Amino acid sequence: MGLTALVIAGTADLFAGILLSTMEETLVSISGMMILIYSAIGMRGNIFGAMGSRIGTAMNIGTFEMSLRKGTVLRANVESTILLTLIMSIAMGVTTWAVAAAFFNANITVFDFIFISTVGGVISGIIVLMFNILIAYVGNKREWDVDNITAPLIAAIGDIVTMPMIFVATWLFKDKILELAHGEWVIIGVSLALIAVTVVFGVYILKRKVGRRDFSGEAKRVLVQSLPILMICLIFEIGAGIVIQDQQDALIAYAVLIIMLPAFLNQGNALSGMLTSRLSSMIHLGTLESGWVPRAGAGENFVLMYICAMVTFLYIGLISFAAMILTGGVDNIGLGRTLAIILLAGFLATTILNLLSYYVAIAATKFGLDPDDHSIPITSSVMDLLGSAVLVFVISFFI
Fold first, then answer.
1. Are 161 and 41 in contact (CB under 8 A)?
2. Is 105 left (phi over 0), alpha (psi -120 to 50) or beta?
3. Which of 8, 234, 257, 6 is nearest to 121 (CA)?
4. Of 195, 197, 214, 213, whose CA–CA distance to 205 is shortest?
5. Which of 172, 239, 231, 194 is nearest to 38 (CA)?
6. Of 225, 157, 204, 212, nearest to 373 (Cα)?
7. 196-200: long-range contacts (C-beta < 8 A, 24 or more apart)?
8. Are 271 and 308 within 8 A, CB to CB?
9. Where are the domains of the chain?
């Protein structure tokens, strides 16, 4: 089931790569757009991947019910996820502007970045949230192990949805609102309104009375535990964006690489999310002994990740090359080098994510934290940075 989900996710990410390859004008016209796109994609996976992991754990221990009434696990996760999406979208806008201004000669204001990040983030977040609920519903009905399917599918959906929504928000900003007589003031007003809504919603969640017999306090717990981690993760996501932004010209020059890029990074995210979800559930159920030396149960999962990785990375390399040919791209790298790049980079990335996922889950347990809230965001963000660095290194070795 997990391998099938990874293949589906890889296929879906192909469309995100093709879309990215057609958006050269937008990427070049706004300094820092590549940073914003990849940090937004990564953060969407962090927030909603963690939600899927929490739901999977709730299913495994019998506390999940398919209801949005107050006090349920699902309601708490929906509320906390919406609020985290708002907060992190605003934070991404501010941080991307600061980095772009410092290193890439930013040519739009901080409010412009907040508008693009938050409008695009909220629209894509709502869509991904609906898919997350759908996966939970179908998984609950059919008694699936959602730990094996949520991470790859949500990561792929996040890629497919986030990228076009960021471009839609950019189109609204550049071609519609700025054309108005007082367009820049409209951007500032909308951005300030979004910040105000976020503050009010946050105060509402934090001041809510906690029930003793239900999960009415779960949204507050998720917010308090997740927000500091997500802020740290934002640093890694921005770092990944900087690595990619710095290599933007080289990636655009080789069509197959920019088509392959979203799928490669997403597979690292999906594999780390799948592994950390499985490890988190095993820790909650008491079937995985927490030690600094991986035990047999962890080793079996490591081998599974290598198998899934090699199959899916080979598949991604083949379909990316085929897509490049079918869309009229120039074959200036060859199929052999394309496969060599993605397989070597994939093997190195999988080795890193195996060890990273295990030790992050164990560390969260040692410090009395919930692995569902911390493992996926940390591993996904670090893998975005390390995965992009590994891919760039391997590309430089072959080209």
1. no
2. left
3. 234
4. 197
5. 239
6. 225
7. 197/86, 198/83, 198/86, 198/87, 198/90
8. yes
9. 2-398
CA 295, CA 90: separation in Å to the nearest integer? 41
Q: How far apart are CA 248 and CA 254, in angstroms?
A: 10
Does the CA dihedral 49-54-55-57 come out positive or negative?
Answer: positive
**Three-state helix/strand/coil letters over 350-395:** HHHHHHHHHHHHHHHHHCCCCHHHHHHHHHHHHHHHHHHHHHHHHH
To the nearest 10°, report the CA torsion of 118, 180, 29, 193.
-20
pTM: 0.79
Given CA atoms 164, 169, 175, 176 in this order, what sign does their dihedral have?
Answer: positive
- List the chain pLDDT tens, one digit each, 399 residues: 567 777 877 787 788 788 777 777 777 778 888 889 888 888 887 788 778 777 777 776 777 777 777 878 888 888 999 999 999 999 999 999 999 998 888 788 899 999 999 999 999 989 988 888 888 777 777 776 666 666 667 767 877 788 888 888 988 888 788 777 788 899 999 999 999 999 999 999 888 776 555 566 778 888 888 899 889 989 988 998 888 888 877 777 788 888 888 888 888 877 887 787 777 777 767 777 666 777 767 778 888 889 988 999 999 999 999 988 888 777 678 899 999 999 999 999 999 988 888 888 778 777 776 666 667 778 878 888 898 999 989 988 887
The rounded distance, in Å, linking the Cα atoms of 79 and 359 is: 29
60, 284 contact by CB (below 8 A): yes
Provide the token pair at 171. Answer: 């189109």
Q: Retrieve residue 164's tokens.
A: 């076009």
